TrEMBL record, chains A, B:
<dbReference type="InterPro" id="IPR047057">
    <property type="entry name" value="MerR_fam"/>
</dbReference>
<dbReference type="GO" id="GO:0003700">
    <property type="term" value="F:DNA-binding transcription factor activity"/>
</dbReference>
<dbReference type="GO" id="GO:0003677">
    <property type="term" value="F:DNA binding"/>
</dbReference>
<keyword id="KW-0238">DNA-binding</keyword>
<feature type="domain" description="HTH merR-type">
    <location>
        <begin position="16"/>
        <end position="86"/>
    </location>
</feature>
<protein>
    <submittedName>
        <fullName>DNA-binding transcriptional MerR regulator</fullName>
    </submittedName>
</protein>
<dbReference type="Pfam" id="PF13411">
    <property type="entry name" value="MerR_1"/>
</dbReference>
<dbReference type="InterPro" id="IPR000551">
    <property type="entry name" value="MerR-type_HTH_dom"/>
</dbReference>
<dbReference type="InterPro" id="IPR009061">
    <property type="entry name" value="DNA-bd_dom_put_sf"/>
</dbReference>
Length: 135, 135
DNA sequence: CTCCCGCTTCGAGCGCGCTCGAAGTCAAGG
DNA sequence: CCTTGACTTCGAGCGCGCTCGAAGCGGGAG
């Protein structure tokens, strides 16, 4: 594991993690990380070592972390791709902000809805507990 | 629309809605409602009129509403089916309660996680707004 | 020199949750 | 009697987000 890290890291003075390490840090699989890159979710293709292996920088990891946050809050892949494209081309700050704004509102709404449902589930659980206690 | 309601309702003294009406009330499609039934998500098959049409009672609608709550909070179809089966067979209160308990904890955890991500998104938005204001 | 291991690309496959269309039935209205 | 329209069943199809396996390469250890 440390040996593996050294494999790539030693060649470039500690900078750059392999795909497996990066994946583990982000809570994804190597397959998924490559898939995200293929699918244009990354601002730029990840740098490669001389032998063609991906080498993830700290900036790559920060971006990917943001992607996981967007995914975990339900932003579709397509929309993340759009956002990434805007970043890639530079500028477009208003549009990027608009995407984040819209997403935030959706997430807030969904959060409120889930909280409402959770309340109903709580009440259902209370009923079961009363029912079971009454025996 | 009111005419449609009468079609089925008039035959049985106001009790029982057609699939389309029930679907609309629950925020689902008629296709989905039939699919749920086929898939065993309902405690019992919905009653039929003489002509074989489904007729949803108030109790059906309450159950389906619960199903939509469970779905909206991310419970998988399979698990709802299991829960429905336990209800169908009668008894099994502890197991039903256990399912709801487990689900509640998952939902709470996921809620907390999403709130965390939302905070990060908020901060990102702030950065953009500062950046744009600084022009 | 050979072995092994982790990476590479590519394309197919999968699980989930619907979603839809075709073809047929039935009851009421004109 | 004929049309209309909401219903019925059945099975196929789809969109999403991965997930996986095959086949090949390159570089360090024994």
């Amino acid at each position: 594991m440390t040996t593996t890290a050294t494999t790539t890291a030693a060649t470039a003075g500690e900078e750059g993690l392999g795909v497996a390490e990066a994946a583990q840090l982000c809570g994804l699989t190597a397959h998924t990380l490559r898939y995200y890159e293929r699918d244009g979710l990354l601002v730029a293709p990840v740098r490669r070592t001389a032998s063609g292996h991906r080498s993830y920088t700290a900036a790559d990891l920060r971006w990917i972390t943001m992607v996981t946050r967007l995914r975990a809050t339900g932003m579709p892949i397509r929309e993340i791709r759009t956002y990434a494209e805007l970043c890639r081309r530079g500028g477009h700050e208003e549009e990027r902000l608009a995407i984040l704004h819209a997403h935030r509102e959706r997430v807030r709404a969904q959060l409120a809805e889930v909280q409402g449902h959770l309340g109903a589930i709580d009440r259902k659980i209370d009923l079961y507990e009363q029912h079971l206690a009454a025996r």
